[in-house]
Design the sequence.
């Protein structure tokens, strides 16, 4: 488990990684929350993207975005959260990106996907609960 939670970056790269982790975590919490606050609007969009007319799908994606986003903010289970969110972003690109296009679906979503793939590789960076789980207060290089 220690290898799974340990960060691969140190120093300035660990600090930059932490900033990426927290900013994208907040991004996902916000967009996950929208799926509950503006559920009918989000449902209409999901139908437009080719998903079945099921509010359950919107709620599940919202729950995943909020939960995994919060995990990123805390730096807890960073790689697991990043993996789940990478799948969500790949799905967004393959559905909304292909059907609707636009700067958000073909610009922001691929950027978020790239960030999640980076976090999946790098780990949490500095100031994360993952570092404490690995038995270290600071990330290690390697």
Sequence:
């Amino acid at each position: 488990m220690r290898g799974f939670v340990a960060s691969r970056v140190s120093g300035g790269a660990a600090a930059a990684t932490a900033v990426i982790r927290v900013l994208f975590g907040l991004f996902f919490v916000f967009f996950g929350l929208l799926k509950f606050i503006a559920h009918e609007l989000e449902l209409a969009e999901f139908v437009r993207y080719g998903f079945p007319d099921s509010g359950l799908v919107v709620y599940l994606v919202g729950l995943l975005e909020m939960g995994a986003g919060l995990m990123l903010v805390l730096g807890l289970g960073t790689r697991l959260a990043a993996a789940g969110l990478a799948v969500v972003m790949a799905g967004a690109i393959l559905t909304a990106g292909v059907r609707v296009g636009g700067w958000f679906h073909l610009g922001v979503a691929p950027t978020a996907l790239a960030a999640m793939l980076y976090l999946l590789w790098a780990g949490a960076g500095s100031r994360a609960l993952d570092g404490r789980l690995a038995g270290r207060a600071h990330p290690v290089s390697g």
The chain has a mean pLDDT of 90. The helical segments are 2-5, 11-37, 39-48, 55-74, 78-99, 102-122, 129-133.
